[in-house]
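[Meeting: bench + compute handoff]

Bench side (C.D.) handed over the final construct sequence. Compute side (W.E.) agreed to return the predicted structure before the next meeting so the bench team could plan truncations. Sequence as handed over:
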Amino acid sequence: MTSQPLVISVILNTNRRDDTLECLVSLSRNSYSNHKIIVLDNASTDGSVEAIRAAHPAVQFVALERNLGYAGNNNVGIELALQQGADWVFVLNEDIILDAECLAKLIEVGERDPQIGILGPLVYHHDEPTVIQSAGGMLGKYWESIHLGKNEADNGQFKAPHPVEWISGCAILVRRKAIEQAGMLDANYFIYWEETEWCIRVGRAGWKIMHVPQARIWHKGVQRDYQPKPSFTYYGTRNYLLTLSKHKAPLHVRLYVWLQILRTFTSWSIKPKWRHKREHRDAMWQGIRDYLRGRWGRMPSS
């Protein structure tokens, strides 16, 4: 009998003790046996370190020395996983709950086709357990990131594994050889758009990106009424523009995106009904400036 490939899960925790503990419990119940876990802790002050070590002594725990953002911090864990011989690296948000068969279903599909480089599960809203958050993603006409099935009730509309262009970063399973060929997450992004760009890069290196609806998770982080902070506008603006230039999007796409950004910026500046968006306007302007300056990494403090 062929031995199971080694999967190492990487979880980044930042003051989310209870969520991380709940995620680890769900992982401990998974049916896939050749599996290890690395928890990266980003200077938490909520007792995460002691609680995780006490409850899950078999989990490898790494205290990060500095905050490199979601992308850079996870790269620490991805590199460790590769050093320890992982065949697949499973990058997870700390606020997800996995079905017991999730990992087994993903590996089953991945091992059937050696050209699959990235896989992702069907993501549900945690507070609406039968409502889809993401069934994988596609790039729109103007390279906007679009979640398939977003906010749809699950009526079995996603029946079989299907190709997509990107996978939600809350749970993304990546083949070792794909990482070795295309590289890890781009730390310049710090946070937001980093998983989409990673999938674009892996796909352009010749690997398939697949969504597996039989593998299921529940994600707490994004609800239907999610109201992003100005920092989301900053990173979303800067990193969207970075992705377009990094992957040489067609000129008409870049022109359209710039026009839309400038149109939004103008509306948020002069129209009274958007007065509440002034902080987002300022964050957008900072994102534009930093993109033009080539300033990456963490959003500067105001």
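W.E. noted at the follow-up: Residues 251-270 form the longest helix (20 residues). C.D. will use this when planning the next construct.
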